[in-house]
């Protein structure tokens, strides 16, 4: 830790500029909606999501609440877009979410100053954490200058900076056919009353502006990674140059339910937010009649088709989709759904508020202010659950150097009686064996049977070993042939690890469990010098002629 703090002092942005996919793969991301996460003064004003107005969260508010995030074991945050947005009330509220850019060269003053953002960046780096910023290329926004039913609508295009007026944008048309890719790329998102003015990304001046902009943004604020909005709405061959101008890990939003459409985008930038698998997991775990075998099908397609499945973003909630608890209040189902995020191949992303049990439905209801929870960490079973999952993942990374390049294998369980549906699915990613069920609360009939070490995709355990569930410390004995058989308890998920490692996690003393910072450092060392630590040690060695840890 000392080493990293010292290195950021000496090297400044250099370290941040080096954050590649490989640096990100071992991390775990907490998604912050900047306006809704924390007030600068720690106050707790009311925030009615249905109003779609700024509620007051800021960059410095985030700085003051980094302990809350890091103590759950997260070592990166993703924040809302940071640039200046359209002011005032549009047809659908204010730009509190940050996606309605008016000037890419200014910082959104509602969130703080440029210095405040730099302070957030260095506060994160001092803790060994990463900063991911959301960026929008596809569109900008303005309020129509005449609100009558004129069509096409008139805008003051000069407010869209630094672009050259109307000719810098695609001619107004709204996307009507999502099967027509030209429509998707060159027509507009939004509605006639609140349009998203589509940038002409075929225009080489605009391309240069965007590439230079992202390069400067990343270096000025020492950004470690980008979440790219509306990836599928810009022509594919725009993206490789943009990503290389950024020079950091890039994960793109391609909102779609199938891997065939999403996969080509994984060739262009580091990875995609894994929406196809999200849809399968969400529908499997929001009802006891969901289809768990569909998870295996889609996840296996992603493994085959994504260029680097380990660089995709794994999530079960975000600010655009209804929360899990808006669909089900069954806590066993909710825990199973959350568990998925941390035990498959992608980089885990948790959306703020899920750990507090938030239940908001579709946008804007899913954007509840976190301060209303009081950032409570006591008697918050989901927060404890997430903390253990982060710790288990870090322990897995430390103990198996190949964990981050080993694809998960899936074992959809046969139902015990022919009349009942299949609820169980086991996910083996040594040293983790995860047992999920959508049997729901009260389910004590799901049985998971996972083949032994010698069988393809087995748990990787030796006969006679003792495993523990990282959530409960419950022990499970591996059979002599290496196989494992477990019966569900109250529909709860289980994550099994050999006792020597898993016990530290379930008792809360494992890596990353209570102090993300020390977990981070242990992880780096356990990896035989994680890439970033290795780089720093190398550079430090040259600069100081010594290695400090
Ligand atoms: C506002 C209001 C909403 C209102 C909406 C019309 O206007 O708040 O209540 O419903 C920002 C704000 C939003 C705001 C929008 C529009 O701007 O956050 O609050 O909504 O002004 C990204 C961001 C998102 C952001 C924007 C715009 C883009 O994550 O937060 O929104 O910068 C499309 C885009 C996707 C975009 C999403 C909002 O719209 O592709 O990038 N998200 C189908 C299409 C998708 C489409 C989706 C929703 O519908 O394929 O492309 O997303 O319109 C699956 C299918 C999918 C299907 C889904 C719904 O079902 O496989 O194809 O998606 O089964
Ligand atoms: Ca476009």
TrEMBL record:
Substrate binds at residues 100, 139, 227, 320, 367. It is an enzyme of class 3 (hydrolase). It catalyses: Endohydrolysis of (1->4)-alpha-D-glucosidic linkages in polysaccharides containing three or more (1->4)-alpha-linked D-glucose units. The active site is at 229 (nucleophile), 253 (proton donor). The record marks 320 as: Transition state stabilizer. It comes from the Eukaryota. Ca(2+) 2 binds at residues 229, 253. Disulfide bonds join 47-55, 173-187, 473-506. InterPro entries: A-amylase-like, A_amylase_C_dom, GH, GH13_cat_dom, Glyco_hydro_b. One of its GO terms (molecular function) is calcium ion binding. Keywords: Calcium, Carbohydrate metabolism, Disulfide bond, Glycoprotein, Glycosidase, Hydrolase, Membrane, Metal-binding, Signal, Transmembrane, Transmembrane helix. Its EC number is 3.2.1.1. Ca(2+) 1 binds at residues 138, 185, 198, 233. Residues 1-16 form the signal peptide. Its cofactor is Ca(2+). Residues 31-393 form the Glycosyl hydrolase family 13 catalytic domain. The chain crosses the membrane at residues 523-548. PANTHER family: ALPHA-AMYLASE 1, ALPHA-AMYLASE FAMILY MEMBER. Belongs to the glycosyl hydrolase 13 family. This is alpha-amylase.
